[in-house]
Structure formats: C-alpha cells, structure tokens
C-alpha cells in the first residue's frame, strides 16, 4: 500500500509545482518541464504496477500442496515487480529533488 500512497500523492504535488512555476516571473527551461513530465510518468507507472501486484497478491491459494513449478516463477516475477516499483519511487524522489532545486535556485536571492 505504501507505493500506491506515495504514487498517488506525488501526482498532485506535480500539479502544485507546475502552478507554482507558472506564477513565478522567471522562465524555466525545457529540462525543468521534462523532469516534471518524467516524474508524472514514472509515478503513474508505479501506481499502475502497484495496483496490479496488489491484485495478484490477493489471489487466494486454496491448495498449497497442489502448487506446481509455476509458483516459483510467479514468486520471482512478483519480487522483480516490487523491486521495479521501489526503483521507480526512488527515481521519482530524485527527479522531484532536482526540480525543487531548480525552483529554489530561481526563487532564492542571489
């Protein structure tokens, strides 16, 4: 649930950053807006992947003795998916940091 919460919180924060950037008198370069777009894309991807993995994890396993070799494959796919989501969240946080650093550099007195 943590990655779903993080992703769904980051997306509105991107809108706040965009509205803050538009209210400033300074012009931002295209890299700043690409960072915002990439953050929104990665956050949306992490949210979708989190929901899919949550749905997969809620599948009931009635007869665990009857599980075949497919269970090990599903386990490793889920571990890979969770690792990918964690990587996406870290990437989003790093891009947010870079974007906020750019805003602070423009706003702060020199």
Topology summary:
Elements: H1 2-23, H2 30-57, H3 70-107
What would a concise description of this structure say?
With 110 residues, the chain is mostly helical. Helices cover 80% and strands 0% of the residues. The mean pLDDT is 77.
Structural description of this entry:
It is a single chain. With 110 residues, the chain is mostly helical. The N and C termini lie far apart (42 Å). The longest helix is centred in the last third of the chain and has 38 residues, at 70-107. It contains 3 helices and no strands. It has helices spanning 2-23, 30-57, 70-107. The relative contact order is 0.17. The mean pLDDT is 77. 80% of the residues lie in helices and 0% in strands.
What features would you highlight for this structure?
single chain; about 110 residues; mainly alpha
Mean pLDDT: 77
Q: What share of the residues does DSSP label as strand, in percent?
A: under 5%
- How does the major sheet shape up? none
- Counted beta strands: 0
Low-pLDDT regions: none
Roughly how much helix do the residues carry, as a percent range? over 70%
Structural class: mainly alpha
- Following the backbone from N to C, one meets helices and strands in this order, namely HHH
Report the total helices.
3
- From the spread of the alpha carbons, the general shape counts as elongated
Radius of gyration: 19 Å
Distance between the termini: 42 Å
């Amino acid at each position: 649930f943590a990655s779903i919460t993080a992703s769904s919180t980051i997306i509105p924060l991107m809108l706040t950053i965009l509205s803050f950037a538009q209210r400033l008198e300074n012009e931002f370069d295209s890299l700043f807006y690409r960072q915002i777009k990439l953050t929104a894309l990665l956050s949306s991807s992490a949210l979708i992947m989190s929901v899919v993995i949550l749905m997969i994890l809620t599948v009931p396993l009635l007869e665990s003795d009857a599980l075949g070799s497919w269970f090990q494959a599903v386990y490793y796919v889920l571990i890979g998916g969770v690792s990918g989501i964690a990587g996406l969240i870290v990437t989003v946080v790093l891009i947010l940091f870079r974007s906020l650093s750019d805003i602070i550099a423009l706003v702060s007195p020199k």
